[in-house]
Amino acid sequence: MKAESAALAFAGAMTIAFLVVLAMPSDDSPPLAEEWEIASVCLEGHNGLATHIHASLSIEIDGEQYPIGPNVGISDSTCDGMRGIHTHDDSGTLHIEAPTPMEAPVGAFFQIWDKEFSESRIFDSIADDDSEVVMYVNGELSHEFENYPIQDGDVIEIFYRDK
After folding, report:
1. How far is 14 from 18, CA to CA, in rounded Å?
2. How many CB atoms lie within 10 A of CB 20?
3. Which residues contact residue 135 at a Cβ distance below 8 angstroms, ignoring those fewer than 6 apart?
4. How many C-beta atoms lie closer than 10 Å to residue 123's C-beta?
């Protein structure tokens, strides 16, 4: 009986150890949203910028253009100035500005905007057997989705559509 109890205890401990190892993030995992440095940038103005680039973003859901409003990331609940990625008008132009050189992943803009975006979701639209989320950058299909680092002059198009 003691040997059986010891074997069960050992098996339980090994199972717990295995689950702990599975739960640990790997070093090559993409950064979590809260690790996107640019999402925490708050600027008072345009002086002393190391990064100042622009890109265009458009979103189409089931054939309908989704508006990207003016002043996204400007004077919001966490920043009285301008966030590292922001809009000034409803043209879809993203302004990426930072005091030091840093990446500006597409997902950081969505985090600032407080909207959902990933390879399986755009806002409340979720990819399934009949629909998909696709992203094009400068006319080329991109599989980086929220992790794509925005470059100056990029044209980023996101679609939620039937397969």
Report:
1. 6
2. 9
3. 106, 141, 142, 143, 144, 145, 148, 156, 157, 158, 159
4. 13
Which CATH architecture describes the domain 34-162?
Beta Complex (2.170)
Q: Under the phi-then-psi rule, with left for phi > 0, alpha for psi from -120 to 50, and beta for the rest, what region is 134? A: beta
Question: In sequence order, which ranges of 24-78 are alpha helices (DSSP H)?
Answer: none
Task: Take residue 138 and report the two structure tokens written for it.
Answer: 């400068």
Block residue for tokens 């009949």: 130
Which run of H or E residues covers position 60?
strand 51-61
Sequence spans of domains, the chain: 34-162
pLDDT in tens, 38-61: 999 999 887 788 889 999 999 999
Q: What is the Cα–Cα distance from 113 to 66, expressed in whole angstroms?
A: 14
- Enter the pTM of the model: 0.78
- H helices within the chain, ranges in order? 2-23, 106-113
Is 109 in a helix, a strand, or coil? helix
Q: Which amino acid is at 92?
A: G
Amino acid at 21: V
